[in-house]
Amino acid sequence: MTVLQGEGVSRGVASGRLRFLRRDAQAQPRREVADPEAEVARFDKARGEAVVQLAKLYVETKARLGEEKSLLFQIHQMMLEDLDYRDSVTGMIRDEHVNAEYAVDQTAAQFSEMFAQMDDDYMKERAADVLDVSRRVIRLLTGREDEELGGSEPCIIAADDLAPSETARLDRSKVLGFITARGSSNSHTAIFARTMGIPAVVGLGDSLLEEFDGKDVFVDGGSGQVYVDPDARTAAELENRRDKETAHRRYLDTFRGREAVTPTGHKILVCANIGAPTDLEAVLGADADGIGLFRSEFLYLGRDNYPPEEDQYQAYRQVLEAMDGRMVVIRTLDIGADKQADYFQLPKEENPAMGLRAIRICLTRPEVFRTQLRALYRASAHGKLGIMFPMITSVSEVLRVKEMCAQVRAELKAEGVPFDEKVELGIMIETPAAAVISDLLAREVDFFSIGTNDLTQYTLAVDRQNAQVESFCDRHHEALLRLIRTTVENAHAAGIWAGICGELAADTTLTDFFMELGVDELSMTPGAILETKAKILDR
Amino acid sequence: MTQFQYNITDPNGLHARPAGLLVKEAQKFSSTVTLTRGEKSADLKRLFAVMGLGVKCGETVKVAVEGPDETEAAKTLEKFFQENF
């Protein structure tokens, strides 16, 4: 038995025979040709055939997996039509009198290197596309067929890395899982595996040997472990785990698409927390009823100046449109001295958790806040938006924020820019002060969302970053539960809704407590949504 | 020569597919079209060259068109930028 450790990028346990894709990855040998013009014609013919193949794949994939997955083949087509690419290949054939396979191979290496060198993750990934499309031309030149993917029997696919065009052609019913030597959790293969729900482990490096071909393997996409030829006892254990996991996943899947209605008839929205538009795919696959917390910090971090209104508008709009009418609650800027971008030039603080952060920055730098509010209101025309303000401690803060919102609405109206008049304004309840005066705050807003992580730290005086006091952090402390109860009761007394968006929302040992309180929404990491729906519905 | 500037607001910058369509659009004209980002320039009729510029969101690019149909080309391309980037 051999155990390999890689990065688990798509959860689940799969077992089966390993099939190694021996791709034509080896370098093409260089040959001299007597008639370069005939060789150029050979290349042009193969290139033309490749374009036809790609056009066909585009149509097929669009019908099977949708427009988005099929666009890849359109990009590949455009790459083959590129003048630089063609000039490079034909130039090499004419100048050096070499065979077309070699010229394509060299050109592919050169262009993919250009992409790999770029400082943009999206462009880096395009290196794989150049190699992928060039291999297609080489296959046509050498007269070899596209390798049958998955074969006739279900198996686990192993490869150095899977090319984008290969993953799109995989037949889900024949592929039990995949493992690759290269790749990362953001690579094309990983994203594809998660979309299709196929367990996958990537980044196994040199430990993934071609001699494993045909052996029995177990893939654990959660832990990132791959067992080759497991001994009888390990195999029995793994089979047991796989069966349990499969059974549990099937069980959870029975709750997919169902509304989480409690036995007393109260509907709870089970929503997702996200940090960037790239998380959307996970949200859509997780059966979320909406987005309960969209952290807007990603727009501000990792850049050297304040994000312009237009950038923000586009990002918010993208999320609202993808959610197609389901609620999206976007939290305004929540940064402080512990999590900041240099251009904010925030002074260093002794105690950033209690310092100039979140709404306090927005109120002291109204021009930054105003830009964000304008972008949010403009985006509201494209879906159902809620705007949420973090770190509130007093009614006067809420009044100031509401006044700024009213100004922005008046401005947009005067400019004739469309927005939704019914955008809900809500606040995070994450300070003990806000929870205690939640009766007063409830009169001023449309909803509450309880941020249990900060509420715990401020209530119990336990620093979240300090491991030494972790044993003093009782996540179910009575004080915390009482504050949650007070907040929800005060919300309902004032006729507004109350949700929970901290880690406690996904704590199924508290689900009964939340149901008893009549909590209206629970927002959590996408992976926990079905688990929570099952807890609410299965009684 | 006719030219215009454009500030990219698409969060993904000049990503592959719209870049490919942009190149196709440019190829419809006989004028030479040059895309400039900072100190680097590329022939707008060549996809890899355009992608190689690595134009990101928030950056301003310059498009210069020179040739018999430059007015028409600049107008069409500017519209294409506005609709796609």
* Corresponding CATH superfamily of the largest domain in chain A: Phosphoenolpyruvate-binding domains
Number of strands of chain A: 17
The chain pair forming the largest interface, with residue counts per chain, is: A-B, 28 and 22 residues
> At the third CATH level, what is the topology name of chain B?
Histidine-containing Protein, Chain: A
Largest pleated sheet of chain B: 4 strands, antiparallel
Which strand order spans the largest sheet of chain B, edge to edge or round the barrel?
Answer: 1-4-2-3
Mean pLDDT of chain B: 86
Q: Output the CATH homologous superfamily of chain B.
A: HPr-like
Number of domain units of chain A: 3
CATH topology of the largest domain in chain A: TIM Barrel
Mean pLDDT figure of chain A: 89
CATH class of the largest domain in chain A: Alpha Beta
The overall strand count of chain B is: 4
Q: How many individual helices of chain B? A: 3
The run of helices and strands of chain B is EHEEHEH
Second rung of CATH, namely the architecture of the largest domain in chain A: Alpha-Beta Barrel
Which oligomeric form is depicted? heterodimer
Notable characteristics:
heterodimer, A: 539 residues, alpha/beta, Glucose Oxidase, domain 1, Enzyme I, Chain A, domain 2, TIM Barrel, 3 domains, 8-stranded parallel beta barrel, 19 helices, 17 strands, 46% helix, globular, B: 85 residues, alpha+beta, Histidine-containing Protein, Chain: A, 4-stranded antiparallel beta sheet, 3 helices, 39% helix
